[in-house]
UniProtKB/TrEMBL annotation:
Compartments reported by the entry: Cell membrane
Species of provenance: Haloarchaeobius iranensis
Protein family membership: Belongs to the ABC transporter superfamily.
Identification of the protein by name: Amino acid ABC transporter ATP-binding protein, PAAT family
Keywords, sorted A to Z: Amino-acid transport, ATP-binding, Cell membrane, Membrane, Nucleotide-binding, Transport
Membrane-topology descriptor: Peripheral membrane protein
Lineage per the UniProt record: Archaea, Methanobacteriati, Methanobacteriota, Stenosarchaea group, Halobacteria
Domain ABC transporter: 6-240
Keyword check for Membrane: yes
One of the record's GO molecular function terms: ATP hydrolysis activity
Superkingdom: Archaea
One of the Pfam families matching this protein, by short name: ABC_tran
PROSITE patterns reported for this sequence: ABC_TRANSPORTER_1 (PS00211), ABC_TRANSPORTER_2 (PS50893)
Cited SUPFAM superfamilies: P-loop containing nucleoside triphosphate hydrolases
One GO term describing the cellular component: plasma membrane
Length: 252
């Protein structure tokens, strides 16, 4: 049996006196879509940022495709070539067009020539339905369009794993669907994804598994139908009921 794509072992992270992650252990198989859910401050975003080492864990080990990618002697840049990340606040360069936001990494990190980088950028803008916005600057795009450019930028690097940190939380409600639709298509294509989101409709439809975190620990983990319909922990049931009422259980 092959190694899981991602393996996280005994991950701990504190900020001063505040302990954010307390011994996180899990594996993510190729093609899985895992939703991280839990109250604010439960460690979801910190866990995501530790996986691609935007935040360095205090202890624990992370393996990607069977190789250790955390700790001394590992190459953080090599890790980030293999792990794409989509941020809550888009993180686009405002002085670059949509296409240029994508070609920048392709040229600097992948070493592609100008023409090849442009071709790949256009291919991925088309993939997220934005080929006609290649020459637009972020200020000229809606929030949903900016986030789709962010997704295209991450995909263009040909990652093994995609991380999404609340990709729709900064969007107006009517724009959420255009982003979750792209994410559902990626899931259908077999992209391995680790997603922090409150969009429970997307979780029900696209997730292989859900992980409920509270106070830096995994409280419960299993298929979406288990956590929604037959949660083992009262804390899980209470949170999911509340978040579904707030954000809706049906897809936008």
């Amino acid at each position: 049996m092959s190694d899981p794509l991602l393996r996280v072992e005994d991950l701990h992270k504190s900020y001063g006196d505040e302990t954010v992650l307390r011994g996180i252990d899990f594996e993510l198989e190729r093609g899985d879509v895992e939703i991280l859910s839990g109250p604010s401050g439960s460690g979801k975003s910190t866990l995501l940022r530790c996986v691609n080492r935007l935040t360095e864990p205090d202890s624990g080990t992370i393996y990607l495709d069977g190789e250790r990618v955390s700790g001394a002697g590992t190459d953080v840049n090599e890790l980030r070539r293999q792990v794409g990340m989509v941020f809550q606040d888009f993180n686009l360069f405002l002085h670059l067009t949509a296409a240029e936001n994508i070609t920048l990494g392709l040229r600097r990190v992948k070493g592609l020539g100008k023409a090849e980088a442009r071709e790949r950028a256009m291919e991925h803008l088309d993939r997220v339905g934005l080929a006609d916005q290649a020459g637009s600057y972020p200020a000229e795009l809606s929030g949903g369009q900016k986030q789709r450019v962010g997704i295209a930028r991450a995909l263009a690097m040909d990652p093994k794993l995609m991380l999404f940190d609340e990709p729709t939380s900064a969007l107006d409600p009517e724009l959420v669907g255009e982003v979750t639709s792209v994410m559902r298509e990626l899931a259908d294509e077999g992209m391995t994804m680790l997603v922090v989101t409150h969009e429970m409709g997307f979780a029900r439809e696209a997730a292989s598994r859900m992980m409920f975190l509270d106070q830096g620990q995994i409280v419960e983990r299993g298929p979406p139908e288990q956590l929604f319909q037959h949660p083992e922990q009262a804390r899980t049931a209470e949170f999911l009921q509340r978040i579904t009422q707030l954000h809706g259980g049906e897809s936008t």
